[in-house]
Write a structure and sequence with these properties.
By secondary structure, this protein is an all-alpha fold. It has helices at residues 4-19, 23-40, 43-68, 72-93, 108-116, 120-128, 137-167, 175-197. Helix 2 packs across helix 7, helix 3 crosses helix 6 and helix 4 runs antiparallel to helix 8. The longest helix has 31 residues, at 137-167. The chain is globular and about 55 Å long.
């Protein structure tokens, strides 16, 4: 298991990464836009399943590989930090864009596959989740429990956000400002990842 302070840090990191725009969140918002909150809410189960598979595979692989390559955890943190920094810059330079409403309905399989291939899964497994989470079952269940408790409401928030955009009630919201604010948070987060990799 891990300490209460480690659990709080894990929860904070998970929350920051989950709430940031990305392929899964864009699909959730698009589903809310097209299908409404009630019909799209079930997609959070596909998101959870996709992340669970990807995080578990990445985590077990990194723990096993680090026994032969002790430098791998630090290198993974550096790569993840660079990825988050790139994501922050990319978000600053581009506007949030939801797929147009005339495309086909987003289903469970689509969201599951998109989430399983989401680079955020490697970030969770290689940087945010403690290594012990992939070494013992109680620690794994505790970490995934924290992840699940945070993922479900955040996923629903993205669906509700898309539904509100579809209703025309948030015309005052400037997507560029939202995205730039998120990019600043991501930039700060990437700096903490870089610090952790070298300390």
């Amino acid at each position: 298991m891990f300490s209460f302070s480690d659990a709080l840090l894990l929860a904070f990191g998970i929350m920051v990464v989950l709430i940031m725009p990305g392929p899964t969140n864009t699909l959730l918002a698009a589903a809310g836009l097209r299908q409404g909150v009630r019909r799209a809410a079930r997609l959070t189960a596909a998101e959870l399943a996709g992340y669970t598979v990807a995080i578990t595979v990445w985590g077990v692989f990194l723990v096993q590989a680090s026994r032969q390559l002790p430098w791998l955890p630090a290198a993974t943190r550096v790569v993840c930090g660079v990825y988050v920094a790139w994501l922050a810059v990319n978000m600053w330079r581009s506007a949030v864009a939801l797929p147009t409403a005339d495309r086909r309905e987003i289903g469970m399989k689509t969201l599951f596959v998109a989430t399983m291939l989401n680079p955020k899964a490697a970030l969770f497994a290689g940087t945010l989740f403690p290594a012990v989470a992939f070494a013992t079952l109680p620690a794994y269940l505790a970490a995934m429990g924290i992840f699940t408790v945070l993922l479900l409401p955040i996923g629903l928030l993205w669906i509700a956000f898309g539904a509100q955009l579809g209703s025309g009630r948030v015309t005052w919201l400037n997507p560029a400002h939202v995205q730039r604010g998120a990019s600043v948070v991501l930039g700060a987060f990437s700096a903490t990842l870089a610090w952790a990799a070298f300390h």
